[in-house]
Write a structure and sequence with these properties.
By secondary structure, this protein is α/β, with parallel strands linked by helices. It has helices at residues 42-56, 96-104, 116-127, 178-181, 184-195, 201-209, 213-237, 252-260, 275-286; strands at residues 6-11, 15-22, 27-35, 67-71, 75-76, 81-82, 111-115, 135-141, 145-151, 154-155, 172-173, 176-177, 241-245, 268-270. The chain is built from 9 helices and 14 strands. The strands form 4 sheets. Strands 3-2-1-4-7 form a 5-stranded mixed beta sheet, sandwiched between helices. A 5-stranded mixed beta sheet has the order 10-9-8-13-14, with helices on both faces. It is globular, with a radius of gyration of 19 Å. It comes from Deinococcus metalli.
Amino acid sequence: MTPPHVLALDVGGSHVTAGLVDPVSRDVVTTARRDLPHTSGAEELLDAWADALREVTPAGAAGPLALGVAVPSPFDLVGGRSLMLHKFPALHGVPLRDALRARLGHPPGPVVFGNDADVFALGEWWAGAARGCARMIGVTLGTGLGSGFVADGRIVTTGPDVPPDGELWNTPVAGGIAEDIVSGRALAHLARLHTGEEQAPVALAAAARAGSPAARAAFAAFGDALGGVLRPWVQHFRPEAVVLGGNLSRAFDVFAPAAGAHLPAGLLRPSERFEHAALLGAAALTLGVETPSS
């Protein structure tokens, strides 16, 4: 039987967002956010996560609620322990499943962890721009480059059709890796190269929409790089949709034509769920939508 509600937690480097998800409507009912840096102490971090979860937990919930947690990598998803040293140093090796249960007072049901880019993709497959597709690729464009491959509700991280661990960011390109040419850092470089000055992505997109040739050229170069990175994996994985999320995807209209020129027509789509996609994907993990690939 499908539970009436599922809890979800999206862990970011500067904040955490908790959500209550209705698995029938496949929608986020309510959210709670807590802002704190990843460099905070373990007690402060875990207390904030639990506090946000308590805020979205419905009063009088009948029985414990399952909890899905979206986390950055590297992370031991089965054991529930962070393996990160560059982020959340105070949580390295901490058994987070037990720590969350202890702080919530009334232990939740199953606590399931998923990579944040993977669950973004799963959320868009389950309840967003790729709903109804058998196979899809989700890509997050922000400070870095994230990716997730989904086939029939399974997150695929192994096999010849996907890059190692399902991660595009470190796939080789001429002179470096994909994240060097497809990321916020790469777009900032292109902005300086084409416009002669540093510009925030929002301002650069506004200039491109207003007809600035230099801003348009910067986004065309960014889209061309993105399409080139995606092309071989689209050929291998054969998705019905490639969904783009993350902050940079809000400029989809100005870089998608150049990216799409490398791919089958109509394949690229902007996210429909944006910040809610990871919450929805994390919730879907608890419902058995996703099973490990082999």
